Task: structure prediction
Amino acid sequence: MIQTIPSLALFGLLLPVPWLGGRADRLTIAALTLYALLPIVRNTYIGISGVDPSVLEVATGMGLTEWQILWHVQIPLASPVILGGVRVAAVIMIGVATIAAAIGAGGLGEFIFRGLAMVDNHVILAGAIPAALMALAADGAIGVLQKASRWASPVR
Amino acid sequence: MSFLEFVLKHHVEIVTLSLEHFRLVLWSMMFSLLIGFPLGVLLARHSGRAT
Result:
């Protein structure tokens, strides 16, 4: 549901919150955390509940406890799906973090907002290009981890 | 002034703001993982028991 609130509006809505509203960086971290929750929770849920029931039956038959099944079977098998959620969340956060400059939290959005005020494309690009590169780098790095986790998982 | 000249002139500010941007994202990612991962596991286990 948080994802349906426009990011700039969410920053504004969090401003009056006592402890958060006092500092722009705290407020930004809270807003970005809320934005990233949906893909992480959803993918963790799908990954864990999507594990083949026959694998769980085998694990139970081997005498593993519920927690052992979770840590040694379900999480390793679900890790590519979970990392998929982390990947989406990272790209969303890097993009939304540019809006944090509107409330004085800094970041690359400062160049974007400054460029918009000055109507200067060079200044806008000085903020937009590094942000896009950062998103691509995060997507690539987590993608590599995702592939590695697929190869390392006990059942492929 | 070309874009490249602008970048060269303001490279320190670009790097500083990039690091600031990265710091905000890193902290947010840490908190969202700390909340989101256990929440997803709990929901999956709860729904697994319900079926």
Q: What stands out?
A: DSSP finds seven helices and no strands in chain A. Chain A touches chain B through 45 residues (CB under 8 Å).
